[in-house]
Amino acid sequence: xxxxxxxxxxxxxxxxxxxxxxxxxxxxxxxxxxxxxxxxxxxxxxxxxxxxxxxxxxxxxxxxxxxxxxxxxxxxxxxxxxxxxxxxxxxxxxxxxxxxxxxxxxxxxxxxxxxxxxxxxxxxxxxxxxxxxxxxxxxxxxxxxxxxxxxxxxxxxxxxxxxxxxxxxxxxxxxxxxxxxxxxxxxxxxxxxxxxxxxxxxxxxxxxxxxxxxxxxxxxxxxxxxxxxxxxxxxxxxxxxx
Length: 242
Known about the structure:
Blueprint: H1 4-12, H2 16-19, H3 23-37, E1 46-50, H4 58-63, E2 67-72, H5 75-85, E3 90-94, E4 108-113, H6 124-137, E5 138-148, E6 161-166, E7 170-178, E8 182-193, E9 196-207, H7 211-220, E10 223-229, E11 235-241
Parallel strand pairs: 1-2, 1-4, 2-3, 4-5
Antiparallel strand pairs: 5-11, 6-7, 7-8, 8-9, 10-11
């Protein structure tokens, strides 16, 4: 089984923009989501985007005047972010998400961990550590936002086969296998080469995180937290530091 970093490097990263509907469409969704979460965002805010990818949320925040620290484990996706960021105030770094604090020179106003990034961490202890670091790194009144998929209710039978995206030359499907605290995600990528189809398969692991546990963990660290629907069926938790 591949690590998350290896899975993205060899399998998902090269097709991630395609999977997301293309850069412009993905950034437009990010703009809408950021606008809904931060309708009155102040220019000059310091924001951290953990698992930033190609910049779906970093670029909209930077366009609104935030100084961005953007971390990801995928050099491929970070290069795409850098190529599109232009003169926007975005510092994009390849590192472990739990290392973000060493790059901060002052408390942050916003910390994001969006997409399905939380479930990519190796275990619940790592999730707890990230929440603690967020609490330590935000100014009073600062905001932490997480979005993730709720895998606590296991799918069964054919429901475990999920069509992700397809076109005339590429088909991406995933198959889920559930264990007590995680789900093994098998990504099956068919790509056309001339008159033939080539199949690539890679498997990686995601955590089964209970949204109530995430909310309670944030409250234990001095946040007020609310839960709401996110994009594409995800859970969104918005937490403000007391």
